[in-house]
Design goal:
The complex is a heterodimer of chains A (191) and B (247). By secondary structure, chain A is mainly α. Chain A has 9 helices and no strands. In chain A, 18% of the residues are buried. Chain B is built from 12 helices and no strands. In chain B, helix 8 crosses helix 11. Chain B starts with a helix and ends with a helix. The chains are: A mainly alpha (191), B mainly alpha (247). At the A-B interface, helix 3 and helix 4 of A face helix 5, helix 7 and helix 9 of B.
């Protein structure tokens, strides 16, 4: 069982039209075919969403109970449903308030240190900051053009989403594909 | 809204609450609780928690299936059940999953998860599954793949075709003889035994013998009162179905 939404980089409640506009840009034929059959048919999608939610819960419960390496839970499933934001706690069910305060204190100190390092520019060079600013500016300018664009809203949305994913490095597109998306966006914006 | 913790405090029976909660989770995981599942759960709630309305309160929680509640109920189950006899509890869980005659993808995942919670190894799992259903366990289907849906569409078309033939056959029989009074009950009784509508008398006998062995209350001796009561309930349903079919 695959988490298609995670792979597409979209939330579970994304509308059918938006999904439909993204799918033609997928390079993996099998993945595109699976997404078309499962996500574009309301009945299939309802069953899929229900099972996906169930498996996310089971994955969480398995991690909590230390049952994430069994015959009934393959390494593929473990990998597919591993979510770093829901790591299992090693704490007992009832945690004393003093230990909660201690944990939050430590986390607070770590957060402050990271914030200081961030402000001092340790994590980014001048060049990388410039590049990020440039990309954000590009997206911003596309968006401002497209807000006034009267036609092809779905296509514009899809192209923008793809471009954002590419910039966030979640989408591995070839140079020519990036060029094609940019050219279409520019054409739409300038028409 | 009630919480699992508040219900534990109310009933003073955390094991009973955990059992009804988890069985309710299985029943509702395919998006609906049908009549047979509802009746089974109500009887279970009445027997285990001594309250006819127990299921009304617990089912919304089961269907909401908060991860914290699932984890808490599983911990309770693990704490209470003797590892040597955990397979008996698994067989009760399987009986609940099969009560509507369908073993859905979601039910398959939950049953396998609960088998792990109970510490049941793969070999024992296969044995228990065979005892209850009379067939080998299948891996849960991959509902994220187009291939699974293609196969499912094919099976669905076959089922519709079978049903159409059955209807035609029945209508032909009806024109030549009066309709059997127990037709709908017979289908239900067959489902309780995990059999299809075309099951023969011999198949009914075999299924009853197999299931009676699995669910016989004597096997559950030494386990908690809640589990013995649930086993009694399950055994009674199978016996009633068999007696009805043999009349």
């Amino acid at each position: 069982m695959k988490d298609h939404y995670k792979r597409l980089g979209i939330p579970m409640n994304t509308g059918e039209e938006r999904i439909r506009s993204i799918l033609p840009f997928l390079r993996d034929e099998q993945f595109r075919h699976d997404c078309e059959r499962v996500l574009l048919d309301p009945e299939s999608r309802e069953v899929y969403d229900r099972n996906l939610k169930l498996l996310r819960k089971i994955a969480f419960a398995r991690r909590e109970l230390g049952l994430d390496k069994t015959v009934n839970w393959s390494p593929e499933m473990q990998k597919e449903f591993s979510d770093p934001s829901t790591k299992p706690s090693t704490k007992p069910d009832v945690v004393k308030s003093s230990s909660v305060a201690f944990t939050f204190g430590i986390l607070g100190i770590i957060a402050v240190v990271f914030l200081l390092l961030f402000l001092l520019g340790v994590f980014e060079t001048e060049s990388s900051r410039f590049k990020i600013a440039l990309r954000q500016d590009t997206i911003h300018s596309y968006k401002s053009f497209l807000e006034n664009y009267p036609h092809g809203t779905h296509e514009a949305d899809a192209l923008l989403r793809i471009r954002e994913l590419e910039l966030l490095s979640e989408w591995r597109m070839s140079e020519s594909q990036v060029g094609s998306v940019d050219a279409r966006l520019t054409r739409m914006a300038l028409t | 809204m009630q919480t699992l913790a508040s219900l534990n405090a109310h009933y003073q029976n955390p094991h009973g609450v955990a059992m009804v909660y988890l069985l309710g989770w299985i029943a509702g995981c395919d998006g609906k609780i049908d009549e047979k599942e509802d009746v089974f759960l109500q009887e279970l709630g009445k027997t285990l928690l001594n309250d006819v309305d127990a299921v009304k309160v617990l089912l919304p929680l089961s269907q909401q299936a908060a991860t914290s509640d699932i984890v808490s109920a599983c911990r309770q189950l693990k704490r209470t059940v003797n590892p040597d006899r955990a397979h008996l509890v698994l067989e009760l869980i399987l009986a609940m999953a099969m009560v509507d005659g369908v073993f859905s993808v979601g039910e398959n995942h939950i049953v396998r998860f609960l088998a792990d919670v109970l510490g049941i190894d793969h070999q024992r799992f296969v044995q228990s599954f065979q005892s209850v259903t009379g067939r080998m366990p299948q891996s849960p289907g991959d509902v994220s793949s187009a291939a699974w849906w293609l196969e499912r569409d094919r099976q669905h078309a076959e089922k519709l075709e079978r049903e159409r033939r059955e209807r035609e056959k029945r209508s032909r029989q009806r024109s030549s003889s009066p309709p059997p009074k127990d037709a709908p009950s017979r289908a239900e009784a067959l489902q309780h035994l995990g059999l299809g509508p075309a099951a023969t008398r011999e198949e009914i006998k075999d299924a009853y013998k197999r299931l009676a062995k699995v669910h016989h209350p004597d096997r559950f001796e030494g386990l908690s009162v809640e589990i013995i009561e649930a086993a009694n309930l399950s055994f009674r349903r199978i016996r009633e179905a068999y007696e009805h079919l043999m009349q």
